[in-house]
Amino acid sequence: MEDIKDITKTETTIEVADVKPDREWRKDDASLMNNELPEEEKDWFADARPRKVMPAWAPIEKFFNWARAHSLWILAFGTGCGAIELRPLVTARYDISRLGMQPRPTPRQASVFMIGGYVSIKTLKRIVRSYEQMQGPKFVVAVCSCAINGGMYWDSYNTVKRIDQYIPVDVYVTGCMPRPEAVMAGFSKLKELILAGKAEGQNLYAEKFDWYKTNQKQVIKDWNMPDYNW
Amino acid sequence: MKELYNKLTLQFNLSEFMQQRPNLAFVTVEKRQLVNLLTCLRDIHHYTHLVFVTAVDWLENNQFQLTYMLHNYENHTDLGIRILLDRGNPVMETIHHLWEQGRVYQRELHEMFGIDFPGSPGVEEPMILEGWQGPPVMRRDFDTKKYSLETYDHRARDTREPEQHMKEKLYPED
Fold it and tell me: What is the DSSP string of A21-33?
């Protein structure tokens, strides 16, 4: 018994002074403040900003882009009425798996976010969160006229008019609603952009991160999530 | 339904009986008698189902009109009970003790019209609009177009008359 007591005694006497609390010493000027979160939740989330990903050596990047373009996974999050077009698109009639695309139920496993039409403030909050949680490389296809200029909700108090002010958009598909063929054409266009190395929405988001955040916080009045939740 | 109305007039201060269809009628009752009338209809006259509670904003009269729609499963008739509220001080008695689903309608009316139902559970919580800071949105003096133009950035639109546009496109020489 005395031996054990002695061991615990020596262990407790180790000095741990001069070390700041965990969150303080790894903060620098670039880290996010997460000011809207309650104090006890600030440690739960990361405070790093998104970073720009530079392309690899050209031939390698070309091969990467080829691989990316032929393995697209759609995030199955129906954000508006255009999401109803996803059902015929992924099932037997139009069977989008011919184009190498499949829906996935979680943002962590998807690379294409399809914005299906009007975006209310409540949905925008979830869209921003889902988009940030998707792993790169990630692409956004905005379907329906509501995502482009508000559509028939142009005078609505609760619908954002341009989705590209809040997240970067690679391809727009017009129509109210577009037929599945039009959506497929949009995905084909997205593939062309990826192959040409022009689908750089993710880098744009990292570059203009502060601008996007300002826009998002202007309309989402009850911001209670971390500034960048990946 | 007229018989029921005649029976009820002995007991309550009813006005404006309006028979819209053989199985649909509306009556207006005094605000303070509403809960008694609903209880009487539910327990005695078999109007057991609350179909909806809705509000109309009569801005010109400075009044809100609430409609409580009831359904009778015995003879399949609908009866709408209307009351008028002062628009400046819109407070109404809660009916969630009669029908549990009443609290949802009351919560919605509180959010959309700013009508208060003291005692209704969770009536202050936001239902559809998260973090809304403006006035109640369904009131007619709330200008949604003005709010939209002030709050959101609008993309410029080109509008074309379809007939004229196709004419210019297909037959430019005409």
Answer: -HHHHT--TTS--
